[in-house]
Please model this.
Amino acid sequence: MIIHTTLMPKKQDVVDKIMREGVKNFRWKNDKAQAGIAVIDVDTGAIVAVGASRDEAALVTNFATEVPRQPGSTAKPILDYGPAIEYLNWGTGQTIIDEKYSYSSGTSIKNWDNKFKGVMTIKTALAQSRNIPALFAFQQTTNEQKAEFAANLGWSPETNGNGTILESCSIGGFDGVTPVQSAAAFATFARGGTYIEPFTFTKIEYVDTGEVYENKPKKVVAMSEETAYLINVILKYAVTSGQIGTGSISGTDIAAKTGTSTIDASAKKAYGIKANIIGDSWEVAYSPDYAISTWYGYEPRISKDYYLTGTEGGNARKEFTKALVKGIMEKNSRFKKPKGIVSAEIELETDPVQLASAHTPKELRSTEYFKKGAAPTDVSSRFDTLANPSNLKYSSTASSVTLSWDATPTPKAIDQNYLTEYFNNSKIYKPWANNYLNKRISYNNSTFGSFGYRVYLKNAYGTQDLGFTTNTTFTTNVQFDATTTFIVKSSYQKFTANQSTGISVAVAPNSQSNNNVPSTTNPSQSTTAAASNLNIYYLGPQCSTVDDYKALGSNPRDKIKVVADGQDVTSSANITAECCLADNLDSCGHCSNLVSGTKYSITFTVKYQKLERNKIVTLSSSC
Model:
């Protein structure tokens, strides 16, 4: 009888050396520590190398094929995110939350670091192996969907008496899988979604009879090739982002997932163990050519003298995997993107996921992958260009202009009623709706500031920022003539990238629009009206540079003239000045360090008796 095996001697030698000696950076801690290793050919599904046991005696326990162990977080792609991508069409940019959460039973669930990282994509959540998002993803698909997806990959998660998969399985809390089962499942992702039942021989020839038995392994289309690719993208990111150490091979994509199981506190107590111990340590690494699954631990899991610490398990799986990848993986091999996959630049934190807008900040942009037809098409309105105010009117004297306009509706991005409804109705945010409503309000306050209007003057010398107001009237003292245009833009106080395009009007001295500027009873505007009797005149040339400004003197009082009711009150008025870079109004400070050849916006604040007003002077880079 001749048996044609699938084992590859050179790759088996790599495994055998590890099982005998360990590796340079991790030697076996004692004679009781064990490992199970399985290497599967992605193309054929064949087992090409195994590490069964450190015990070379006959009839030993085979840890690669015979002893199912808790898979820990290696279960997350198979029971949580894989089904959600397959059946719910999630993309790598799907929003998910990492906050305080509980199982359906009410028992709380924790992350490995006992921290919460908030809103993130599933790419980040799976790469960083966050438990809470994993459970939430698990809960979004039906039991039938999870059961079918897992069974198609050769896994049998634990169920209750009714056949319902236990929620603890979402983080791999079940017994269990073997390294061969683990490698076969992840090889399915690598080959594009078709599961091949692992096998160790291709045929048997019976010499006496001439009969030949051909071994034809079972094949199942476990998922779409798009689902498989999206899992590959995420688990490759887990490696390239530094979350998982696998080593590298020139020109080859490596994807990976680690897993750790826990030990009950009662078991630790029974043996009087106070150390931070775990039950099992896993790492699965795969490329387009091979899938390698490594389990490390003890049998039994815990005893008085032998148990697995987190440090030992973490170091073992990492160093073993690096050696296996180096000795087994091929060079220059990349995962192939199916035609049914598209990329899109999204705005993070959106639900449903939406495209980034023209003004979405850089830190909220991310390019993610989706199934064709399931990619977002709606553009987020959170940072949309603001709507213009309307009905701009004016009245002027020889040296002052008062503008008025009709208000712009409050943008949805800061409308608390809209935001309350948004978070309450979001399937993703709903369990934490009030928390995220408050977070969004805090973000708006710190990033946007108040919503209102920014007023500009435009003339032959350029455009000058006159200031920001939350009112619908604005009075300014400024030099102007019949060629001067005033512009009003809806704007946030701090975030100006999405200002409205603006409405404008040309204003000549001693004139007014057809309808008088309406009076107001708003107390905050009465000071502005009274301040029309307080006039500020800049003493430098109309086009001034930093050098012109400095030539006037070192004190703000040297640079302007203040007139109240026709009287020069400069010497008795309180005058301060703030200097900002004209191209970055958030960069402001003391005016003593102005740099020649730079454009600045100078805001003079004048207080006299009960009157107060501002004057903005723009310093040009050259005149």
About this structure: The chain has a mean pLDDT of 92. DSSP finds 13 helices and 32 strands in the chain.
